[in-house]
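Researcher: Here's the sequence for the chain we discussed earlier.
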Amino acid sequence: MLRIINAKWVTPHGIVEGQDCLIQDGVFVEKLDGDGEVLDAEGCYLCPGLIDIHTHGRMGSDFMDATEEAIDTIARAHLEQGTTTIIPTSLAGSLDETLRFLEVFSKTEKRRTGRADMPSVHLEGPYFSPAQKGAQPEKYLRDPDPQEVQILLERYGRWIGRWSAASELNGMKEFAKACRQQGILVSYAHSDATTQQAMEANDWGFSHFTHLYSCMSSVHRRQGRRFGGLVEAAYLMPQTTVELITDGMHLPPELAELAWRCKGADRACLITDSMRAAGLPEGEYVLGSKDGDHRVIVKDGVAWMPGFESFAGSVSSMLQVLRIAVQRCNIPLRDAVLMATRTPATIMGLSHKGRLEPGCDADCILLDQNLQLTCVIQHGQRIINQKEAK
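Model: Thanks. This is the structure I predict for it:
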C-alpha cells in the first residue's frame, strides 16, 4: 500500500491539488485497507506513467536484434526515463526476420516489474511505398502477399497490436480487413496516397497515422493538377488519430502545434520512434538488426541516413518529447501529458493504463517544476526515486 501526498495531479481537466493518490495491490484505489507507506511528492507533478507506442530500441539494442537480451535492455532503459509501457516496433525486413522478431516477443514476459510493460507489438512495414521509404530499407518494401499475411496473423496475430502500411498499394483492402478481423489497429505509413485514396482506405479499417508528416504525402501536383495527400486526410477525417515525434527535429514546433490544435489532445499522441542509439553518444550505428548493414549516423540529436537528407529515427525519450511539446510547441502541460499517457493507451485499446483512476494500473511518475523526473512508480512499487539516489 502506498499513499502519495502533496502532489499536483495532472489530469485531462487541469492541475488538481489537495488530494492523496492511493495505491494498493498494484492498482489505484479510492480507499486503503490500512495506513500504508507515505510518499511526500513535495509539490511535484503527478502524471500517469508515460506510454510509447512507437519505439524501435534504446541503449544499444533494437527489437529487430530478436533476442531476449535486447528486449530486456530496451524495456529497462525506457522505464528508467519514466516510460512504463511500450509497444515494440519492427523494421521492414524479410519474412524470416519478422518471424524471428515475433517469435522472441511471443515468449518474453509482457509484464515484469523493473522494465516497461509490453502488451503487444507494432509491425512497421514491409508493405510501404518506395517513394516514401524514409529510413526503411527499400529492398524489403513490397505489396502485401496474402499468404505471407496469413502466416503472420495465424501464428502471431494475438500479439500484433498494430500494423502500419501504405494504403494505396495493391491488395490493401484485403490486408486491412484481415487485420481488423483480429482486432489489429491498421495505420497509414510511408505512403504516397492521395487524400481520396486515404479516405477510401478508412472504410476498409485504416484509422491511425504513423508519425504524422514524416514519410507521407501532402499537397502535390500531378500533370498540373493539385491533389491532397495523407496529411490533409488526417485533418479531414476527425475520427482518426495521429502520432507526433516532438523531438525538436522531426517536426518544427508550429506543425506540432497545428496538429494539436486541429486534432485535439485526445486524437494526437506523442511518440519517440527511438532507435538503438537513444541514450548513447553520437556516432555511427545500425538501424534494425545488429547483424544488418543499414547504417545510420547520429548527429545533432537525431539519427540520419548517410548523406544527411532524411532522418532515420529519434534518439529521444518520452520524457524529452513531452518536455519539448510543452516548452517549444505551445502545448499546455495538461494536454501534453494526456498525449503521452491516456491518448496512446486509448489508441491501443489499453483501458487500464494511462489514467490515475481507481482500478487502473498503478503506473505513475513525479516531475518537478522543470519537468525533470524525480520518481517512477510501476505496478504500485517505487522503481526510481531520484531524491533518495542523491
